[in-house]
Design goal:
Elements lengths: L54 H13 L6 H15 L3 E7 L10 H22 L2 E6 L13 E4 L2 E4 L13 H4 L4 H22 L22 H22 L12 E5 L3 H6 L1 E3 L6 E3 L4 E4 L9 H8 L4 E5 L5 H11 L8 E5 L6 H14 L5 E4 L6 E3 L5 E3 L1 H17 L6 E5 L34 H18 L2
Parallel strand pairs: 1-2, 1-14, 2-5, 5-8, 8-9, 9-10, 10-11, 11-14
Antiparallel strand pairs: 3-4, 6-7, 12-13
The protein binds phosphoenolpyruvate and cobalt (II) ion.
């Protein structure tokens, strides 16, 4: 059993005492150097963890969570790892997208179906442009915890804990709403289960059938300046399918279902630990709350708790890489998180900012190449291009997002590597949060339908356009 005596309490990177280090669970073993267990991270400094006022309530919730059934299976995560290995070889391409942060409020059928539709539509374009199969990973069914730059938010002289995502506290500005509440962990788990259940049912029922791409059309597709190009693409895919079926005399059954995987930032380590399981006939430990957990740019410290936790799970995992990452650090991350150099295990999600790619990326690629280290290079063109308008609204410009994609693709190719995936913050709704794109959202439009609590997302038309332009880029580059 492991329990931190008061004198060994660790400090988070943001200076906050991680009180929950005192929480015991059945499976804990002390984290002697090199030895891993689902709780060995508790001996390391854990950044970005909430401070719960009632440790006993937290302990009860975690014990409950640890008994609840998993949300995904180890077979699914192993399958995803194989597909990511194929993307590393250049045979597949990964598309990951969804909200910056899911909200409990939006756990309803039309919002979930819209997210599925936009990812399906984008993936069709990428298949067409890249001539490769596409792995679809939603940033959903668990994306409920957020890193924040400050622990406290002050309004009119009142300082309260920052909002850290619906899994931790509520966005409203009152002491009751902002106090971290462990019951919300259960609510997040349940909503993740509801979301994943609905997605599985839709897919099982033929929603993602390539014979019927018209099922995925969102209401306002006709207004999009790219509607005609998209419709032409879809028709040509339908024609090719029918041609093959006529030729072979059989229905291409495998085509009427596509795979969908879930992902979220593995930020709240007590939650992730509670869903970390051993599975009969499989070796190792799996995080069964999601297929593809990732480590954020702010929590990837080599000696920190997140790296310790992630190094021991068997899932395919991602790490966000910002412009401050050094070549040595990136190499050490790869060695720690994937010591066997296993294909498909590790994805680096670059989020350097359009203007930093040319300077930052080549030395990173080179340091991995020198040691023959395998990773999948993915581009998140959102998080390095966030800005605040004169009116204090957080936004991103379409042209900068596109420029980061183009630059990353070009630089990787020049370094004899390749872009194997993309990561977007987007929504199937027609919000006005990002500026630009052919539909012409301007700075003045931002207030019209700005809904996000956190980062600005591409709206439906912007996401479609981005996918079309990316498909063209992939066509030109031949990979
Ligand atoms: C995010 O993906 O919402 C996020 C916080 O990203 P990053 O870790 O890259 O800053
Ligand atoms: Co974000």
């Amino acid at each position: 059993m492991f329990g931190a005596p008061v004198s060994s309490l660790h400090f988070c990177q943001d200076g906050q005492v991680c009180r929950q280090l005192n929480v015991h669970t059945e499976t804990q073993t002390a984290g002697a150097a090199g030895q891993w267990s689902p709780s060995s991270w508790q001996a390391k400094p854990a950044a970005q963890q909430p401070a719960y006022p009632d440790p006993e309530a937290l302990r009860r919730v975690l014990a409950h969570l640890a008994r609840l059934p998993p949300l995904v299976t180890s077979w699914e995560t192993d399958k995803l790892k194989e597909q990511l290995a194929a993307a590393q070889r250049g045979d597949w391409f990964m598309l990951q997208g969804g909200d910056c942060s899911e909200s409990f409020e939006d756990c309803e059928s039309s919002a979930i179906a819209s997210k599925l539709k936009i990812l399906l539509q984008m993936s069709l374009m990428l298949v067409q442009g890249g001539k490769r199969r596409v792995i679809r990973i939603g940033r959903f069914a668990g994306q409920y915890a957020k890193p924040r730059s400050t622990d406290l938010e002050t309004r009119g002289g009142l300082a309260l804990p920052s909002y850290r995502g619906d899994m931790i506290n509520a966005a409203g500005f009152s002491p009751a709403e902002r106090t971290p509440n462990p019951e919300l962990l259960l609510r997040a788990y349940e909503r993740s289960a509801l979301t994943i259940n609905f997605i599985r049912a839709l897919i099982e029922g033929g929603f993602a059938d390539l014979h019927h791409p018209e099922y995925w059309e969102l209401g306002f597709v006709a207004n999009s300046p790219h509607a005609a190009e998209y419709t032409r693409m879809v028709q040509s895919i339908g024609d090719s399918l029918r041609f093959m079926e006529t030729l072979t005399g059989c229905v291409l059954a495998d085509i009427n279902r596509v795979d969908f995987f879930s992902s979220h930032e593995g930020l709240h380590l007590l939650y992730e630990q509670a869903q970390t399981r051993q599975v009969p006939r499989h070796t190792g430990w799996y995080n069964l709350s999601t297929h593809f957990p990732w480590i954020g740019d702010r929590t990837r410290a080599l000696d920190g708790a997140h790296i310790e936790y992630f190094r021991g799970i068997a899932n395919p995992i991602g790490v966000k890489i910002g412009p401050a990452a050094t070549p040595d650090e990136v190499l050490a991350l790869a060695k720690t998180l994937n010591p066997q150099n296993e294909p498909g295990r590790l994805t680096f999600i670059l989020r350097l900012g359009a203007a930093q790619v040319d300077r930052c990326l080549p030395p990173l690629v080179e340091s991995l190449r020198r040691k023959d280290t395998r990773v999948l290079w993915c581009c998140d063109p959102m998080h390095g291009n966030t800005e605040t308008t004169r009116d204090g609204i957080k936004t991103r410009r379409f042209e900068n997002i596109l420029a980061e994609l183009e630059n990353t693709c070009r630089v990787l190719k020049d370094c004899r590597a390749h872009l194997g995936g993309v990561h977007f913050e987007l929504t199937g709704d027609n919000v006005t949060e990002c500026i630009g794109g052919a539909s012409g959202v301007t700075e003045a439009d931002l207030t019209r339908d700005y809904r996000t609590q956190l980062d600005p997302r591409l709206n439906y038309e912007q996401a479609m356009e981005m996918a079309l332009l990316l498909a063209r880029l992939m066509e030109q580059k031949g990979r």
